[in-house]
Structure formats: C-alpha cells, structure tokens
Amino acid sequence: MNIVVLTGAGISAESGVPTFRDADGLWEGHDPMTVATPEAFAADPDLVHRFYDERRAVLPRVQPNAAHRALARLEAALGDDLHLVTQNVDDLHERAGSRQVHHMHGRLRAAWCTACDSRHDWGDPLLDRPPCPTCGSRTLRPDVVWFGEVPHDMDVVEERLWACDLFVSIGTSGLVHPAAAFVHWSRGDTLELNLDASAGSTDFARSRRGPATELVPAWVDEVLG
Ligand code: OAD
Ligand code: ZN
User: Fold this and answer.
1) Of 26, 29, 162, 212, which sits 20 to 30 A from 155 (CA to CA)?
2) Ligand 1 atom, smallest distance to 22 CA
3) Are residues 34 and 57 in the same domain?
4) What is the pLDDT of residue 24?
5) What are the pocket residues of ligand 1 if the criterion is a CB atom closer than 6 Å to any ligand atom?
C-alpha cells in the first residue's frame, strides 16, 4: 500500500509548538503571516530574523509526541511505501525517528546563504548576521519558504500523490496552497485527521476529529494491523 501523509502545525501543537492560526495569533503585535514574506524581510530584516530566531530557540525545549512517533513507526514498517510531507519547519518528525521527511516549507534549523546558494544546518540566531561558513558573506537567511516562494520537493510529492492508494492529511487548516490542493491530486482514498473541521474537510472521503496524539497512533495501528 502506497501512502502519502501530509502534516501541519496541528501535529506539533501538543508538543507545545504554537500553530499559525489557532492561538491568540499575534507575535509582538504582528500577524505571523505578515512576517513570513520576502517583502517583510527586505523591509525589516531584523524583525524577521528575531521571529525565526525565537522559533528556532524553542526547538530544544519541546519534544516529539505520540503522533510523530507513530509516523516514525509507520515508516519503519512501510519503508519507501510511505511518503511523509510536512509543512512544519520544526524538527520533531526527525527527532521522533522519521528518516525521510519532505520539508516543503523548509526547516528552522537550517540557514541559506543568498550570496553563494549554500545551505547549512543551523541552531544559532541569525540576527547578529554570522558569516556564511562557505563564502564568509553575512547573507544568511532562515531556510524556510515564505509566501510567494516555491515550496520544496513538489515534483516528487505530486508524483507520489498520483500513484498513492491513500492520502492522509494531519493537523493542517487546509488554507495554504499548494498543500491545500493535495487532496485533489491524490488518486487514492483520502482521510483527514484534525481537531476540528478544516477548510478542505469536505474534499476528503473520510474525516476523524480529535487530538493528533490520539488519532494518529490509532490510525497507524489500524494500517499495521
Ligand atoms: P494552521 O495553524 O493554519 O492550522 C493548524 C491546524 O491544526 C488547524 O486545522 C487545527 O484544527 C489543527 N489542530 C490544532 N491542534 C491540533 C491537535 N492537537 N491535533 C490535531 N489537529 C490540531 O497550520 P498549518 O495548516 O500547518 O506556512 O499552516 C500551513 C502553513 O501556513 C504553514 O506551514 C505556514 C503558515 O503560513 C508558511 O510559513 C509558508
Ligand atoms: Zn555563502
């Protein structure tokens, strides 16, 4: 059975990573959506660096939860028959044991040099403009995908959706494209696991409501029989 799983901020919510649209919503008076753009970075790079530096600094203090661990268990059993795609920029899937993760919106723990196009694993702040380890220029930015930029790995993900038997969407509001369209690209059965109804709920053949830490392990148990 070929399965494609898409995860969103809801899978990390119970680990203590704030979602984008559920919480009180504002960060220092800014809507996070207005910070996650190339225009915001051009206009006020310090503001954008501080936003991502804070989110990166939270990662060592949060732990993967039962939902992340269940997906790692699924990968261990299915191998290449599972494709895990995440919109999340945290590292909780990897820390739970998943080895193949398509980070379509990039990774918080990575920096990208816009001068020489090199990418580096990165745990420290970027606000003080550390030099690029490759070329030395002080042009590192968070290696995340901002609104208006092209998500990573879309060619392989689209291919897998066309070939899958089952597409499962976990903890995402279904508001941000292209991920919101995956349910339409899937040739297989479709299942949504979410705390509440999402924007795309009616497009799924089946939906289950509840916290990811309960729904995901239960679903993985079913698949593995
Ligand atoms: P959102 O914050 O938009 O949506 C979070 C979803 O998780 C909602 O549908 C909630 O119902 C659900 N949820 C919350 N707690 C949950 C729990 N404990 N168990 C299960 N579900 C739960 O986050 P995303 O859909 O991931 O992109 O947002 C998509 C993209 O928008 C992000 O990757 C980011 C953002 O702008 C970029 O920055 C490019
Ligand atoms: Zn460089």
Assistant:
1) 212
2) 2
3) yes
4) 63
5) 8-10, 13-14, 19-22, 33, 36, 87, 105, 145, 147, 171-173, 175-176, 194-196, 198, 211-212
